[in-house]
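residues and backbone:
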Amino acid sequence: MGDMFDNDNYCSKSPGACQLLNDMLQFLCYIIYILEIMKKDIHPKYYPEAKIICACGNVITTGSVKPEMKVEVCSACHPFYTGKRRLVDSTGRVDRFKKRMAKSEKILAEKMERAEKETRN
C-alpha cells in the first residue's frame, strides 16, 4: 500500500481510484467542517413524520419542523395535476365577485330602463 502513494504516476495509472479517494477526502473534510461549525441547541426540533393535511382529505407524510400543516390545495386535488377545472374559493372571493357582478348588472339594467323612458318622452 505504501508503494501506491509513493508513486507519482498513480492517478495516471488508475484515474477511477484516484477520483474515489478524492471524493472520500472531500466527504471527510465536509463532515469535520459540519461537526466543528454547527452550534448546539439552536436548531428547531425536526419531525420526521410530519403530516400535511389537505382540505380535500389527502394526508401527506414528510419531514418538517412543524408536526402538522393544513393546506387548501395539494397534488391530489390541484387542477393542473388532475386535469379538472374547479374554483378554489379562498375566503369567499368567488361569492363576493358574483355579488358584485349581479349588482353591477342590476344597476346597468336600471340605467338602460331610464334611458329608454327618456327617449320615449
Observations:
- The longest strand covers residues 47-54.
- The helical segments are 2-6, 10-13, 15-37, 79-82, 93-120.
